[in-house]
Amino acid sequence: MSKIKSRPANANPTRASSTWEKLVQPEDRNGLTPERIVAAGIALADQYGLAAVSIRKIAAQLGSSPMALYHYVPSKGDLLNLILNALDAEFKWPADKFTDWRSILTHFARESRRCLKRHPWASALRAADPEYGPACIRTLEVLLNTLSEFGLGMRTAARALGVLFVFVNGFVAAETSETGIRPVKGKRRAVHQPRFSRVVLATGNFPNVSRFVEMEAELPDDDGFERGLNWILDGIEADIKTEGQLQTVRRKKTAGR
Amino acid sequence: MSKIKSRPANANPTRASSTWEKLVQPEDRNGLTPERIVAAGIALADQYGLAAVSIRKIAAQLGSSPMALYHYVPSKGDLLNLILNALDAEFKWPADKFTDWRSILTHFARESRRCLKRHPWASALRAADPEYGPACIRTLEVLLNTLSEFGLGMRTAARALGVLFVFVNGFVAAETSETGIRPVKGKRRAVHQPRFSRVVLATGNFPNVSRFVEMEAELPDDDGFERGLNWILDGIEADIKTEGQLQTVRRKKTAGR
DNA sequence: CAGGTTTTTTGTACGGTGTACGAGTTTTTG
DNA sequence: CAAAAACTCGTACACCGTACAAAAAACCTG
Hints:
Two copies of one chain form a homodimer.
Chain A (H helix, E strand, L loop, with lengths): L33 H15 L6 H8 L13 H13 L12 H17 L4 H7 L5 H16 L4 H22 L22 H4 L5 H10 L4 H30 L7
Chain A binds a DNA duplex (30 and 30 nucleotides) through loops.
């Protein structure tokens, strides 16, 4: 027996064909909406892990039938994409304008990490379901635009963003890998390297790896992130300097903003 | 004779454990073995994708009952770890000795990429199931050992390997992302960035991203990889040069640990 | 060989998943 | 008010991992 209050259905929901066409819609109804479904999925993942997110459980939490969700979300895969997009939508730009390409890339990396770290399952979701929606595309558009204003060619910008993207994702994935074992209160989990088999390490045949694992558990994550980030930025900078002249010459009409 | 599972028959789920104890065993029987199960899983993944790997299908392919596999593999999760380990075991070292830390890191990155690219699902598996077995640990042991011979401190080595590891994984993940949708025959898939919603891009509101996507589809993967790799190595090198002396001095202070 | 012990295999069953389909219900519209 | 559109739901199917206990096979002793 459902009986979920009165559910007036007036406005056009997002067309089922395309998940991204109309994400936001008037909220003058208290029934099912894509936003509510996404929010329920996020809550479920926060509480029980990403694997616990299922159509049935979300429906139960929303007090409706599983199949009802399929009028707002085409499939579970698309639902995961919507969740990912909701996370990407939390990306914030600072009030001040950037003064050089390095500062904007630094902000991008840090802010991406911050968004991903808000939920421990976020990086896993990114690794598993790579269809990026409007939020991510919007951020990337601003990024590319600003970078071109600072004289970076599209090629360089694309490669730099690719490396940074991969670095941030992987780093946060290592940072937030839970692996079931509860983290010791005082210490954090190892950085960079997810985990290694304790059985193998216990053989004593790999002293370097053992020290490696022990030590990484104590390294502060933020330091490692900033250091890795600076490595990459330094590398990019060196590369730009060597062939920078060619890039600036090619610059043509670039829309403002 | 053939005793794969040497654990006591305890129904208690003692967390992982015996999976790595004895990976290799005599092949004097033509029945089930962990190797055959792993091989069947790999074949299945190659043909139908990683999602198609299931206990039931592997058993069917081996002509046995699903439950029979559980005497050689504790669970599906452990089976995936074994598959990952089998991929890691393909890592090869060159005959010649390395002369500096940069060359060995370069080899590590290239060879890791090669191993991952042998199967399009390998990087996804790495991102999803991060318990590394003896093959990976063995490689890491050699790596750390050699790096220390070249004067790199454990901290620097750990961070460098972490960044490289993440870079290679992420890069190959982007390289091999299939996403099921039609593979353009003439051109390769985009590098670095998995994919973006075509519906969103079709709005025309994101010209930079559109150009970004188009252009990346034409960039050769190898160039991007080598360039990103060199960026990272350059960054590491610059970092080492600035505080290289400190590392060696501090070494005596924290000898044990 | 017989008999017992251990190892390996299997059938059944439980609880979970995504979702196709069609029937039922509600709301909006003509 | 009737028709149409929008929405919900129950059922069903084909999978999944795997717990459990019985059955079968292999091995080891006497």
